[in-house]
Amino acid sequence: MIHNLARDVQAFTANVFLVTGETTALVDAGANFDVVSRIESHVDDLDRLYLTHTHPDHVENVAAVRDAFDVETWGFDPESEYVDHPVADGETVQIGDDGYEALHTPGHKPDHLCFYSRSAGVCFAGDLVFANGAFGRTDLEGGDRETLVESIEYLRRSLDEDLDVIHVGHGPSITERPLDDVGIAIRAAQLG
């Protein structure tokens, strides 16, 4: 089961996905709201915290989650204060009941990861792509439009045709023909 714990939050935050199962995990921690109480309304314990990237709106709540659940974090950049365990491109991590392949997808931020499970038909895309073909900003530190286009193309090549949903860092998850939105994002980012 996947719950977006930030769905109705009226503050600047990223989406925060709680995935229950064999390995109960959080994908991103969000910012500017009490994520701990929202986690506790679903589960008693948390096994892992995965970070798509370390922009403040995705990691501000990391300390509170670490303290409340004595949980460690996984992300791309081992030098980051938010990352306890580095995750390499192509590495498989356990989220819920499924293995997810980590895809290093810089361009929005150099440490950006997407997590994709072929068996579950689910992708956590962070701020790489959004609904309706939108894509991550490249005007922040470490952002690069050409690199972002390459990363979106890499994501598209990695996804199977039977993909069911892309959970994004902001806004609604992509549940209808998600591969189409990735294709639109490629074209839009190339033009931008």
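The above is record 1. Record 2 follows with the same two-line structure.
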Amino acid sequence: MKIATSAYPLDFLASWADYAAKIEGWVAEAAGNGAELLLFPEYGAMELTTLAGAETAAHEENSMIAVSDRMDDANALHADLATKYKVHICAASATVYDPAISPRPVNRAHFFTPTGAMGHQDKQIMTRYERDGMDVVGGGPLHLFDTALGKIGILICYDSEFPLFGRALHDADLILVPSCTEVLAGYSRVRIGSMARALETQCVTVMSSTVGEAPWCPHVDASIGMGGVFGPPDTGFPQTGVISEGTLGQPGWTYAEVDPAAIAHVRADGGVLGRTHWAEQDGRDTFVTAERLR
């Protein structure tokens, strides 16, 4: 399959038509280059807050509400585009107020297939800024989507840094990692987490990023990153584990060809079999002998 992962800049939008044209332009470009799976970044949907005006976009709480209010329309748009261009799309995540979960918003990414099916994944663990600056909460459970492209999981940004989430998705062929990071250190943490999940799960991870400045909203005012696709540095994959990467801070798609058979092969007969041997940690991780050696 061919994957397209984004380094996505946020715009101050004049109208819904401008947003729809922007998203379709991105989807059409990726599909035109043969991509079957498209990944947009964490909080990329925050640009929808500008449709409520500059004052709303600059307000910490109202900006999140404005985005949530637009999600039904955004989901309908992405569903139509997935069907029209015959692609799978993981849309940019957004703050969503879901009273079934909490009075506070969750960070939710929606996933669309060419058949019109839709699922979603909520972020599990919030960063310090999400806790203190946004009061966003962890949402619903992890999902594993069984698709025509294989089994796909989503770990939103910070979630990729927690190995138990990767283990919970150990049957995933692909783990998508939409991210939004404001400094190089944050980007590096998520990139390292993505590569670690590919290593231990013996799968492919796909990372997207928001890029550039959006001074009109405090939640996404500066972002740095790039697209990246990673695999286990083992049989059938690059020895660095890096299948494809973009250019730091440069907007656009990064493409990668991924063979599902290579994932199955490395799991069955790789140079190492970390996924198979995972259970051998049991019991060895619960007892540590402390020895004084001074």
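The two ends are 56 Å apart (CA to CA).
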